[in-house]
Amino acid sequence: ALESIDFKNALEQFQNLVEKMIIQKTKESSGLCTKDGDEIDYDKFYSTTRTLFGPAVKDQNIQAFFRKIMSNADERPEWPEIFGCFTGERDGMSSPSKESMVLLISEKQQITHSVVKRKDIIKGIVKVPLLDLTITASQRGVLTVFNKQRKSFFSYSFYFHQDTAWITGCDYLPNLKYVVAVTESTVILWDYKSKESKSDGFVIKPMKNCLLCVCTVTMADNLAKDTILMGDDKGYVYLLTITSDDFIMKQSKTGKVSQFKVLDSESFDIPKRKLHDDWVGKVKYFPALKRFGSCSTDSINSFVLDDIKRLEDQLPVKEFSVPKGVNAFTYCGKAKVIVTGG
């Protein structure tokens, strides 16, 4: 493997090479460049990159990187692209357990079970480490739980369809042992432990605004209830607490939706607060901080980080402004930083 100091030097030389190529391409576009011995063509770029990084880079990634510079010199590629970090494995030849010489990757396992059909996409994927579960929700209503046992995956799927509502997010309720998913107008609670032929669960409806995201608030103060956060298309963040008693006491007279019993949303106390002036793209609760986060493409109220009690009062919240808003965020406990992506 390359020594870190050698890699740093190689990377600096590679970046200098890219800068020369961009200058060369810019001059060519302006009609100022004349052919000379310093011209960098593909063969020279290929051989120099191979000399710097050796077998850590693949031919197709070198070719793609060179083509990207030549097609648009103004949009500079990031250096990890030369190692194929932003492209999928297409050749199928590399072993997933083999370590890259530059960037270490953990062993991967592909799930060959087909959980979605054509013209359907995965809208949510959640890992539950304590139970070794992976949950996926597709836009058209396929909820799937993968359980890794004996080095193979077992899956339980249920197809939920109501009118034309699309699923927009999912999570796991650790105390009630249910999968929660949100559509444009409902909250789905799926008892994945029931057999596939007898899938059981509940639907909370109607929700007035279009729900776009959901997450679980993990607190160990009460094992008989779970709390979830939801965001909608009007900038509101909701706080919904569900207990096992709700499944019995709050069933609606409207009957069932498929195999799912209907719970009247009007019977729940659902605090909400408008935190953004645009769609809420993501909500997340951080147990280590005892705070929740929500983000939006709103340029003024782009990211909020505060106690969930702020959803039940009107006290000021800690918010940050980012031009063109925030699409994603995460927290790293080891570094004690929050990172946002716009």
TrEMBL record:
Keyword terms of this UniProt record: Repeat
SUPFAM superfamilies documented for this protein: WD40 repeat-like (SSF50978)
InterPro entries, sorted: WD-EF-hand_domain (IPR051242), WD40/YVTN_repeat-like_dom_sf (IPR015943), WD40_repeat_dom_sf (IPR036322)
Taxonomy, superkingdom: Eukaryota
Matches recorded under Gene3D superfamilies: YVTN repeat-like/Quinoprotein amine dehydrogenase
Protein name, as recorded: WDR64 protein
Gene from which the chain derives: Wdr64_0
